[in-house]
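Mods, move this if it's the wrong board.
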Amino acid sequence: MEQEAIAQTALDQMVTDDRTQMLKAAVPYLPPAGRQILSVYAKMHELSNTISIFRHAEDVKVCTAENTDVMDMIQDIRKYSAGKNRQQLDQLTSMLAMIQIIQIMNE
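Not the wrong board. C-alpha cells:
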C-alpha cells in the first residue's frame, strides 16, 4: 500500500541535502546496527546544518511566517501531515470556522 507523500517543510529543505536524503532512504535495507549508525549520522548532519543556519540572525528570517493567523498556520501544518493527524487538523479547522461564524452572528 502506498503512503501519502508528505511535503518537506522550509526548515527541512534548508537543513538537508540530496546526499542525506539518499542515506536516509538506504536505512531500511541495512542490518540493525547499520540502520542505527546511519540514522544517527543523518540526523546529526541535519542538526549541524540547523545550528549553522540559526547562528546567523539574517537566516532566521527565512523561517519566519509573514502572517500569524491561526487558520493559516493550521493550513500550512496540514500540508505536512497525513492520515489521522490530517483528519484532526481538518476537524480543528471546521471548529474554528464554526466559532468564527458564531462570533460574526453575535456582532
